[in-house]
Amino acid sequence: MKQSRYNPGFRFKDGKxxxxxxxxVTVITGWPELNAVSKTALAxxxxxxxxxxxxxxxxxxxxxxKAKTEAQQLTFDLGIGASIDPATERKRALDSFRFSxxxxxxxSVERFLCEQWAILHLLKDDPNAxxxxxxxxxxGFLLAQHCKGQIKGRSDLPRFSHIKQxxxxxxxxxxxxxxxxxxxxxxxxxxxxxxxxIQLRTALANPxxxxxxxxxxxxxxxxxxxxxDPELWRQTAPRLLQExxxxxxxxxxxxxxESLHQILIMERTVRPGRCSTFQSRxxxxxxxxxLTLEYCRRxxxxxxxxxxxxxPLPGATNCIVPLRSPADLIEEGRMQSNCVASYAKQVEDGDxxxxxxxxxxxxxxxxxxxxxxxxxxxxxxxxxxxxxSAATERMVENWLAQFFNT
Length: 406
What we know:
- The chain has helices spanning 68-78, 86-99, 103-109, 116-125, 129-135, 137-152, 165-171, 178-185, 194-203, 207-214, 221-227, 230-234, 238-245, 255-270, 281-298, 301-304, 326-336, 344-349, 390-401, and strands at 9-13, 16-21, 24-29, 35-40, 47-48, 320-322, 352-357, 363-369, 375-381.
- The chain is an alpha+beta fold.
- The strands form 2 sheets. The protein has a 5-stranded antiparallel β-sheet.
- Helix 2 (86-99) packs across helix 19.
- The chain is globular and about 60 Å long.
- The protein starts with 8 loop residues before the first strand and ends in a 5-residue tail after the last helix.
């Protein structure tokens, strides 16, 4: 059998971040060079590489495990023979990479979850853009997206940081008004991606939505996903929108919109014709849980007839098991009292995949395909959608770290 050429993992040395897969290595040079290349084990030449993943993250001091044996046990069960688990190694390398950047640059970029590489190039070319990215992240994100083609072509970037913000907003398809600029300013960096900005741009054409958004202090991922889908918007009361805007977790993941979307899928089967407005996250979640039990009991034919693709990531022996068929998904929903059966069509389409977690506790895990094709953690819940333990979160993090950027 052919031996691996590289020891998988993350390393940092001399201002460079090294990412090793078994047959490929990627080298990312930090500030101010901002260069990235990759090469397979058998290739003779390096090729240009574009990092889509989050390179610079807020620094948090590592939390010591309660007992030495815990981390060792998690590593053993995953079949990882390293003296340090993959998630910790990755964190150390990324922390060192972050500290190699000037503090103002790292601070202005760290909260963005995607397109950091494009934003860094924008800041390198136009130092004045640092203030723009920090005070108006949505406009900064749009500028970086606009200039990405020229960045990849290594040509000089046009400088926009001196142009009025409403002129810039109009350049990207938003209304050339102070109201539109104020709405964009309310979007936190962690909620930004290209799809959501398109959703927001479309939603602003509706005067009622624009009025509702103008009254919110924050327009996060959860809010954008609700107003950006006409079906979801029709069932969203202003009070619910206000509550989602104030929930910090919704900055990162549109939990309420996802639950409401699953409600609509399940309702078409078990309660067709129903249409009402939800006033709170608590009421929506309670209705979701009640509907889930009914949906799982009926196990609709459209779920049973789905054909699942091959799991995008392999499981881990005695820890994580991919659910390979609709029957597996239906059974998981019944055993764990959750709505995973309603994800069957998305699994078939390749947008999401579900796994059964067996250790250190029983849980259900979903991974979702990122905008750029990589897979990341979706949800990780114990029975009845309860929170899992820190040990379970750590085990899943270690498992995912092995397939980073896959």
